[in-house]
Amino acid sequence: MSENIQNVSHQREIVTFMRRSAPLNTSQRLAIEQHADMIVDTQLQFADVRQYFSNPEQPLTIEIGFGMGSSLVKMAQANPDRNFFGIEVHIPGIAQCVHEAGELGLTNLRVVDADAIQLLKNMPDNSIDTLQLYFPDPWQKKRHFKRRFVVPERMALVEDKLKVGGRFHAATDWQPYADWMLDVLEQRPRLNNLAGKGNTYPRPEWRPLTKFEQRGLDAGHNISDFIFEKIS
Question: What Å distances lie between residue 20 and 23, 88, 213, CA to CA?
Answer without folding.
Answer: 10, 11, 20
